[in-house]
């Protein structure tokens, strides 16, 4: 198992390195650029040349990349030129990442707590009214655009009914900040009103963000359970007189969860990479919203650190999924 983890870590480093190179070249080849974003209509050939020299953009790409790589290894990704001019790009990531983690955790919890039980029950009651209804709900979850669902939920529950806040992470509350996770901060400091307010601000964006992961997890769980129910070892367990509880827990669910764990890992990695549309609609202040702003202002430094950190998070989550896969299935450990 230790060799397996070390090998996966080495692969992760290689993936992140190749991605950093491709990302650096892609951003430099985009039309426009940082100089145009900073100078705007006031740009002259002389001012462009001075700014390019000041930013090091007049040097060959391989030199720019080498300097960027050396700075990145020391945690220096440069300063923002558009999102928050002058502020360190990595500080922007650190300030916004807790919001994305908090939102992603709540969204994936909703998706898992609904998707796995509904998928299992739908498979056990194949072709029933519950099965057909669940399939329709999952298809709607995939088909409805996220931004449309976000605006719809916002209009119904925030504007018309007034049950939940329209946007933001927390209202006008003088809350104590400890970890950057607003709900957790409220619980740790026993500021229950702050925790409850942060939780209310999470409900709508988390529901919006959970629809696609819920649909995917539901469909994978249902298909996996149906496949396992037709296996010989399940019929053997039934013929031995084992109880339904033992068969469901030890034989059906455990084997059916293998592809589901992989799916959940991919969904978590995708959510942590930033939900641009959801965070933008609800002004949630995570890395998804920061990515949208960085693209708008062509802020290379912020784009690089956000995309690289998101990619590293995605790869790390997949490493954890691989380890969990080996824990659940002894055959993986043997191989």
UniProtKB/TrEMBL annotation:
Keyword Acyltransferase belongs to the record: no
Taking every annotated instance into account, which residue ranges of this chain make up the domain ABC transmembrane type-1? Answer: 97-325
Record-annotated membrane-spanning stretches:
12-29, 103-123, 135-157, 202-220, 256-282, 302-328
Q: Which InterPro entries match?
A: BPD_transp_1_N, MetI-like, MetI-like_sf
Pfam families for this protein: BPD_transp_1, BPD_transp_1_N
The family annotation for this protein states:
Belongs to the binding-protein-dependent transport system permease family.
Protein name from the UniProt record: ABC transporter permease
